[in-house]
Amino acid sequence: MKRFEDKVVAITGGGSGMGKLSCELFAAEGATVCVVDINPETAAATADGILAAGGRAKAWTVDITNEQAMERFFQDVVDTFGQIDVFFTVAGISPTGTAVTTSYEAFRKVVSLDMDSVFLGCKYAIPHMEKHGGGVILNLVGTYGIRPTPNKLGYAAAKAGALAITRSVAIDFARSNIRCNAICPGFVNTPLNTGFEGEARQRFLDTYQPAPFEIQAKDIADTALFLASDEARAITGQAIVVDGGTEASLYLNYKRPGKS
Fold first, then answer.
1. CATH class held by domain 8-193+215-242
2. pLDDT for the residue 152
3. Contact 239, 163 (CB under 8 A)
4. Annotated catalytic sites, by residue?
5. Which residues have a Cβ under 8 Å from the Cβ of 127 and sit 6 or more positions away?
6. d(CA 195, CA 173)
7. pLDDT of residue 197
8. Could you state, in order of their start, the residue ranges of all structural domains in the chain?
9. What is the pTM of this model?
10. Distance from C-alpha of 186 to C-alpha of 243, rounded to nearest angstrom
11. The dihedral formed by the CA atoms of 190, 140, 2 and 175, expressed in degrees to the nearest 10
12. DSSP letter, residue 255
């Protein structure tokens, strides 16, 4: 039996990158997948691809920062499929800026997309999960939510808040059989990091990441599959770092094999 047979899984940012691949992998493991994205065309394309492969999926166009839209979405999922078992928040933005260079408008935008949406997802998913006997919430936080890096104030603040929400939800609803964990990727080769390429990317990999390979979206999606499964039933309230060792080290002082 597949790991998510008879489970309903909702994933935000499902139209591209990590979200899209996560939708496909959960579907391949038997889940009925609710593909959530602000872009109706990409959401539909992901759902159509899953259906064409013999899986089960439906696309939703949702503004994840809008409270009424999120409340309606979860009610619609339950009305359509009878339950919601897993909610995985992937959608977000990653702007640059310091306390001086970041406008208040830009700060509010990243907090809304990267933190407020996590709160809204938890707020409206949890009551449905409780009625069905439990569930799993996964929030994509990123390592900057644990340890900020220069010129990323808004993003780091929003992700730190999302991590605090994750831990609070885990504590408050463990007795309702609801688990909540954060996945914290390092640099991942996805559309969100478009522009961080060439020499800059290689310098990062050579200087800061111990593992000698680029982390891929599948590494993150596979982590989500494990954390959402019954195999991880004792794991909740945790920040699971998937970054090739970057967050564990202050800096590297060696060169990669084969480099002079």
1. alpha beta
2. 93
3. yes
4. 155
5. none
6. 40
7. 53
8. 8-193+215-242
9. 0.91
10. 4
11. 180
12. P
